[in-house]
Amino acid sequence: MKCPGCEYELWNLRAGPCPECGRPFKPSEFDFLANAVKFCCPACQQAYYGTGEHGELVPGEFDCVSCGRHLTTDEMLLLPADELGKREATRFPNPWLDPHKGTISKWFSTVGASIGQPGKLLEATPAIGSTSTSLGFAMLNVVVSGLSGLVCAGLSLMGSGGGVTAFWMVAILVAPMAYLFLWAATTHGLLKLFKADTPDGLARTVQAIAFGSGGWVMAIVPCMGVLAGFPAWCASATIAVRAAHGIPGWKASLATLALPMLTVLALIGLWIGVTLTSIGMAQSAASQYAQHSWAAPTQLEWETIDLANELRVDVRSGTPPMHGASLLGPASPVMFTAFSDQQAYDAPIGPYTAMALDGMADARRASALAAVTATWPADVTAHRIGNIVFTHYGVKPTDDPQLWLLIELPDGPMNAIADAVHLSGASQFNTRTGAQQALDHQNRRRIAAGLPPLPEYQTLTTSDGPWTAADGVSPPPP
């Protein structure tokens, strides 16, 4: 029989303060194995054995058969039964604190107790000196339950770079432990607000939530994860907090479940916000597609549609841009991501990038692009930014409406479809089977309109240009 506060042996002592830590105790507060404890009369040492379900005396109040003294359980001196040997007399020791067990055996036993009997587990845990061991138990639970998350994160983020993968792997392990400390602090603060008696302080609350973490292991269950582990941890922690401080159930429940409930509500709100944002973006994109019906026959992304639409407006008004990046700007609907592909999020433009130019004021951007195009020849026929090839040079509003203004190259090596935008709409062609045919057909239109032909398709995909009339390839006769 050990003190709940410091594990000092309390055998053969009267009820009262623990000689080591001063914590009050009574024999009736302990749960023993039947016939494992001798209850001795303090006057004559007559021994009686606890035969009740929890090892208690039955009845709990009687007259001593030897000296006639009237006795109650809490007046008596307790000793372990002679035949008990080295076995524990208490019914429910904390297996995590058993120095004779291996780590794996202790862990399995403690997880079972944490899920099945968290209150008894805390009652068997000394308040003094158990905080670090309880956190060790919680950390092991986090590591074990995080194994499946680490595997999933490692597989899904394998192509995202070592930094991103390492961040998520660390987060899977660090986040639950950080949450544990925040949870314990919030719970203890609310207990103080409710004027609950917590003589063992914040450390005892930390022990309760840490030893209640056995349920978190259920997060390893496939397809369930946190949805299984978190509620189990919350239930065990609530019971453990109640037992740790000996407080009413309603106070323990309100204090312990407050932060988890707020967390769940916050996550639900975040999910609703993300969902509504996604719906809004989808509706916006659908509206843009409806507004620019000319793009319907293609696979153009909405960023490219905005880019192409601005270019079409400028060509029709007779003010075509010298450089495609002129269409960027804070006041323009065109975003720098219109030039990106799977290989690069941003695109270089001379000494600048598309993202940098997009954030510049109009005058500064115009000056920067003027410096870029200062060395360009006068007979530019095309140039490229990222995966966009601009071919609008020389095209007038009254020209053949099928003349290309830009080409969007395939996004990534697995895609074989390129999209071409012209004044009357847009079209697409297969770069593996029909690129040369499409380019020859377009060059015939250009020659008919008095424009120089474009370079061959392979040239357009391997350089940024600018290309001139001298780079064009005349198509074979139709």
Protein architecture, described:
- The protein is of the alpha+beta class and 478 residues long.
- The termini are far apart.
- The chain folds into 3 domains: 16-84, no CATH class; 103-271, no CATH class; 293-471, no CATH class.
- Helix 3 (131-156) packs across helix 5, helix 4 (162-193) packs across helix 7 (249-291) and helix 6 runs antiparallel to helix 7 (249-291).
- 43% of the residues lie in helices and 11% in strands.
- Strands 14-13-12-11-10-15 form a 6-stranded antiparallel beta sheet, sandwiched between helices.
- The longest helix is centred in the middle third of the chain and has 43 residues, at 249-291.
- Mean pLDDT is 85; it is low at 83-89 and 157-161.
Helix count from the secondary structure assignment:
12
Average pLDDT confidence is: 85
How many domains? The number is: 3
Proportion in β-strands: 5-15%
Strand order, biggest sheet? 14-13-12-11-10-15
**Helix- and strand-based class?**
alpha+beta
Element-by-element helix/strand order:
EEEEEEEHHHHHHHHEEHHEEEEEHHE
Number of E strands:
15
Large-scale geometry: rod-shaped
| Rg, Å, rounded | 39 Å
Parts with pLDDT < 50 across at least 5 consecutive residues: 83-89, 157-161
Ends apart, CA distance between termini? 102 Å
How helical, in percent, are the residues? Answer: 40-55%
Describe the main β-sheet briefly: 6 strands, antiparallel
List keywords for this structure.
single chain, 478 residues, alpha+beta, 3 domains, 6-stranded antiparallel beta sheet, 3-stranded antiparallel beta sheet, 12 helices, 43% helix, rod-shaped
